[in-house]
Amino acid sequence: MSEQGDALREMAANRGCKLVKSRRRKPGGDFGRYGLKDAKSGKEMFGFGAKGLTASRDDIQSYLRGDAVAGWKRSLIAPVDKIKPPRRKRAEPAPPPPSRRKAERPARPPAEAARPRTAARRAEAEPPKPPKVREAKPGDAEAIAMLLDSLGYQVVAADVRRRLAALRKSGEPVLVADRGGVIGCLSWHATPVIHRPRPVGRITMLVVAEAERGAGIGKLLVEAAEARLRKRGCGLVEVTSNIKRMRAHAFYQGLGYERTSYRFARKLQD
């Protein structure tokens, strides 16, 4: 597949789907068309017709970004036509009049019900507390290095520690989400420009631990960065994201960010 095709396949895999692409070139065929199958069962989900595949790349993206996948998954769990109605309970005979009933001692509650809940049971019943967003400290360098490694950036804690100090000194400290340890990290920058009346803010890096994604931690970090950029006088916030990171694109669009331009890059020789 092309680079765009790889990104589409990754987006499908992240939602539990398998992307299928036609390669038949016969006249009137389905060359260049796509379909989606469930990754586990192999069942056809979207884009399959009597004569082959029917969906375009845009059709697949729209389907994956909506709630259609989740709805299709739910339909596999409990089809409506297979749900049995609950059985009716048999009518129980009416109790005898109070005068004929023997005095009964109230049953003692079991010991389990009388005991207060343990800390473990409270932890299961209560949702996790939201993390605290704060400025990164030198002691966070190891955890941040591990988060950056999950994005594909090979850095060591010593380099991270040095860069944290430099960014703090420049007035743009790195932000972290902390809940008993660092589980997310964001860096930001304010740039004075000549073509706009106010500086332009930029989120230069954002990463959340894999096990913590989807819980609103990234949103907390973005909101904290936007607040600091607003205080620096910025009238616009930009985000750079690799073209292959489809999940990140959907995340920013969900926060109201729009794709406005292309980004070009070239490495400079030493």
Main β-sheet: number of strands, strand sense, barrel status?
5 strands, mixed
Distance between the termini: 34 Å
Parts with pLDDT < 50 across at least 5 consecutive residues: 76-86
Large-scale geometry: extended
Order of helices and strands: HEEEEEHHHHEHHEEEHEH
| Chain-averaged pLDDT | 79
Sheet/helix structural class: alpha+beta
Please give the share of residues in helix: 25-40%
Query: Rg from C-alpha positions?
Result: 28 Å
What is the β-strand count?
10
Order the strands across the largest sheet as they lie in space. Answer: 6-7-8-9-10
* Count of helix runs: 9
The percentage of residues in β strands lies in 15-25%
Question: What does it look like?
Answer:
The protein is of the alpha+beta class. Helices cover 33% and strands 18% of the residues. The protein has nine helices and ten strands. The protein has a five-stranded mixed sheet. It has a three-stranded antiparallel sheet with strand order 1-2-3. The protein has a two-stranded antiparallel ribbon with strand order 4-5. A hairpin with a 2-residue loop joins strand 4 and strand 5. It is extended. The protein starts with a helix and ends in a 16-residue tail after the last helix. About 4% of the residues have low confidence.
